[in-house]
Design brief:
The protein is built from three helices and three strands, in the order H-E-E-H-H-E. It is of the alpha+beta class.
Length: about 80
């Protein structure tokens, strides 16, 4: 099972890049079946490229760091 702290640690490595563009990501939930739910905030919340950031950046990083991650969803 994924630990919330493990997910936060991985997200902390992504946050500086998001913050440089005026955005950020908040961890909302980690489900028992490996779904990580996040909220994109700031500039990331309204950016037309947010789905690319979510899937190509955040999800890819979390899956690489934490094999238990099945998917990342925006809420």
């Amino acid at each position: 099972m994924l630990e919330r702290a493990q997910v936060e640690n991985s997200l902390n490595q992504i946050r500086p890049a998001l913050q440089r563009d005026g955005g950020n990501v908040e961890l909302v939930d980690v489900t028992s079946d490996g779904i990580v739910k996040v909220k994109l905030v700031g500039a990331c919340g309204s950016c037309p490229m947010s789905m690319m950031t979510l899937k190509g950046g955040i999800e890819a990083k979390l899956k690489a760091d934490l094999p238990g991650v099945k998917a990342v969803e925006a809420v």
